[in-house]
Amino acid sequence: MGKRYFCDYCDRSFQDNLHNRKKHLNGVQHLRAKKAWYDLFRDAAAVLLEEQSKKPCRKFLQTGQCDFGFNCRFSHMTEDDLEKLNAQVQEERRSKEEGAEVPAGTVEDWLEKRAKRLSLAQSNSSLTEKMLVFQYPPGWPPIQDLPPSLQAPPPGGWPVLPNLQWG
């Protein structure tokens, strides 16, 4: 049977050899699927710029359908869609300008507080019980929804299992 190549963009597999792989990677179906995948992650400003430069698709505006679909060289966005997209772009720009500072209650704040507590613990040997209590950063999901790697250690630390071998 031999090795098989699976293309994540096209969701199909074929026998893996140089000829088949080149033929697939240069094929129209693969190139369209790859473009569609990367278009999912384009920012709103780039989409708006591209859609504004295109003329509206007459068939899509008249019937609501176009035979070319995503491959149409004309825009399938209505004026309302363009206005919504423009508002989204403006909102993103405003949030970037205003949100240059780190908002309160982030993981960075928590790490700074933790570093201060640890430095106090090293300088002062008589720690209060409050400083030893494990605290989650504000804004985190409920404790039961956290993965085990982010949950607090049990009181007294993790048990050491006898005859435990890693690897």
Topology:
Layout lengths: L3 E4 L4 E4 L2 H8 L2 H12 L4 H10 L4 H6 L15 H20 L8 H17 L5 H4 L35
Antiparallel strand pairs: 1-2
Helix pairs in contact: 3-5
Q: Would you mind describing this structure in some detail?
A:
The protein has helices at 18-25, 28-39, 44-53, 58-63, 79-98, 107-123, 129-132, and strands at residues 4-7, 12-15. The chain is mainly alpha-helical. Strand 1 (4-7) and strand 2 form a beta hairpin. The model has no long low-confidence stretch (mean pLDDT 83).
Provide a concise account of the structure shown.
46% of the residues lie in helices and 5% in strands.
**Unreliably modeled segments:** none
Shape, principal axes of CA atoms: flat
The percent range for strand residues is under 5%
The helix fraction, in percent, is: 40-55%
